[in-house]
Amino acid sequence: MTTRQEDFEAIKTALRQQTRLSAVDAVVAEGDSMALLRLLPAHSVSLILTDPPYHSTKKQNIYGDTAFAEDQHYIEWMEEYSSEWRRVLKPNGSLFCFCASSMSARLDVMLSKQFNVLSHVVWTKPNDPGFDGWKGKMKKEALRQWYSHSERILFAEPAVDGNLFRSPFAELLRDCRRQAGLSMHELTAVIGAHGRVNHGGAVSNWEAGRNTPSREQYEKMRAAIVATGKVKSMPLYEDAIRVFSMDASKEFTDVWTFPSVRPYKGKHPAEKPAVMLEHAIEATTYPGDVVLDCFAGSGSTALAALKLGRRTVAMEIEHKWVSVVADRVQTVSEADGATDQLDTELLPTSPSKRKVPQLPLFEFAGK
Ligand SMILES: C[S@@+](CC[C@H](N)C(=O)[O-])C[C@H]1O[C@@H](n2cnc3c(N)ncnc32)[C@H](O)[C@@H]1O
């Protein structure tokens, strides 16, 4: 199993020719992110937090927003991303994909081929009068449907076939346990979880993907499985189970209330609020994890990730926005003393269209 540091170095190497800026914890790459994504190593990213063109909003000032004549073409384009996201994400990674409410259901159906869509987060913006778009100004009597006052953020995890909840962790546990020659009951007994959970014990629930063990329970199972001598190693808890760090002091529901970014000179037309991105990153990653944004815009995801001590990969197609992202990341990196080779030479993007091989999800010695 590779470390985060090794994953990040491999990403840097893969994107070298398209890199505008490389710092200790950040890479800013210029080009079509579909081509850039195809260069990335499999299972190298912990979180994809990304905000593609919405298509239905048809904004002339956002690259790609008017690129598709039909909704289905947009979904097909997004499906190519879905495949690459699935490939580059770690099996215990997470995906946030921003979208318009009018597209979210169709995106859910498409994403569900390769992901478990866990939440449709509703982002609602309590903006002050004058900064609330058309909400205050428009004639309410002219409405023909409910005024759209929210955006959606689809939250998902990679899916695998073969267990009830299509859980990658469930597959790992089942494979390791079988390789170790232990029954579900034997493993349940090892961790002392008998009686607390029904029938086949806690392990059968975990192998169905119904729920997940605590860190302590996982470590006990890991030790028991490795102690059989039939499995040499199992991933650490941090590499096996998707992180979701939440408590009552945070916004724990799927309705997120964050004011949008007030207009300012040079603002990206779709800039997302930093606090909202930090909220998403903090809940779903560990410090040091690699956070990828394929549609970086102003670089808000990259900055939020750096602020929280995560590594970040930002991809953007528009030259002027790449410059903005690079400048912002450079400023933060210099302030942190985290620069390595700033301003590398930018070469033309010409990656080949590789066929994506089907890869094993988790690696564990002995398989
Ligand atoms: C909705 S905006 C993202 C805004 C960003 N979340 C922010 O806070 O500033 C989408 C961005 O994706 C970029 N984009 C569109 N198509 C792209 C592609 N194929 N590859 C990379 N970037 C692309 C656009 O130029 C735009 O800046």
Tell me what the structure shows.
Residues 342-359 have low confidence and may be disordered. A nine-stranded mixed beta sheet has the order 1-2-9-8-3-4-6-5-7, sandwiched between helices. The chain is an alpha/beta fold. The protein has two domains: 4-160 and 243-336, 3-Layer(aba) Sandwich (Rossmann fold), CATH 3.40.50; 168-240, 434 Repressor (Amino-terminal Domain), CATH 1.10.260. α3 (71-88) crosses α4 (101-111). It has helices at 4-14, 33-37, 71-88, 101-111, 168-180, 184-190, 202-208, 215-227, 237-240, 274-284, 300-307, 319-336, and strands at 19-22, 26-30, 45-50, 89-99, 115-124, 150-158, 255-257, 290-293, 311-316. Residues 32-34, 51, 53, 62-64, 268, 270-272, 295, 297-298, 300, 315-318, 321 line the site of S-adenosylmethionine.
